[in-house]
Amino acid sequence: MKHFIKYNIIGVINTLITLASVWIMHQMLDWNLELSNFLGFIFGAINSYLMNRIWNFKSRGRKRTEVIRFIVVFAAAYALNLVALETTVYLLGTVWCKPFAEFISQYMKPSFFANIVANIIYVIASFTLYKKWVFK
Fold first, then answer.
1. pLDDT value at position 128?
2. 28 and 39 in contact (C-beta within 8 Å)?
3. Residue 23, class by beta-carbon neighbours within 10 Å (0-12 exposed, 13-18 middle, 19+ buried)?
4. What's the pLDDT tens digit per position in 63-114?
5. Cβ-count burial 73-90 (b if 16+ within 10 Å, e if not)
6. 23 pLDDT exceeds 80?
7. What SS3 string covers the chain?
8. How far, in Å, are 78, 83, 134 from residue 39 at the CA level?
9. Cβ neighbours of 117 (radius 10 Å)
10. Is the pTM here over 0.85, yes or no?
11. Residue 15 near residue 44 (C-beta atoms within 8 A)
12. Whole-number Å distance between alpha carbons of 52 and 22
């Protein structure tokens, strides 16, 4: 349970790093959504690896093996994130989600909202795999 609490604290920091990066690149600079999302996740992943290795799991394992496993987990969780992102963007563009999309567009681009949904999927998948396989 201690690892899960620490993971969530790190996750909040990673999420803030990711979302702030995406916000700046996509909302303010009007960069492509997928590129902004990918770069935001790279920034969050670097922070995640360092904080989880040093503070949360206090790993003493071989760094090379951990880094390779971390990259594999990151890629798998990011793939899930990308599917969730594209699915949510698609759904927000449908007729039955139009009222909701119009409502959230008062506060942010609907595609940024899709990024938040996809981030939740990423967090669940990555925690499970980091705990069970990377930092064991």
1. 86
2. no
3. middle
4. 888 889 989 998 999 899 999 999 999 999 999 999 999 999 999 999 999 9
5. bbeebbeebbebbeebbe
6. yes
7. CHHHHHHHHHHHHHHHHHHHHHHHHHHHCCCCHHHHHHHHHHHHHHHHHHHHHHHHCCCCCCHHHHHHHHHHHHHHHHHHHHHHHHHHHHHHCCHHHHHHHHHHCCCCCHHHHHHHHHHHHHHHHHHHHHHHHHCC
8. 11, 16, 22
9. 16
10. no
11. yes
12. 22
Q: At 123, list the tokens.
A: 């967090």
Q: What are the phi and psi torsion angles at 93 (to 5°)?
A: -90, -5
- Is residue 56 within 8 A of residue 7, CB to CB? The reply is yes
Which tokens belong to 102?
A: 């119009």
Packing angle, helices 110-129 and 63-92, rounded to 10: 150
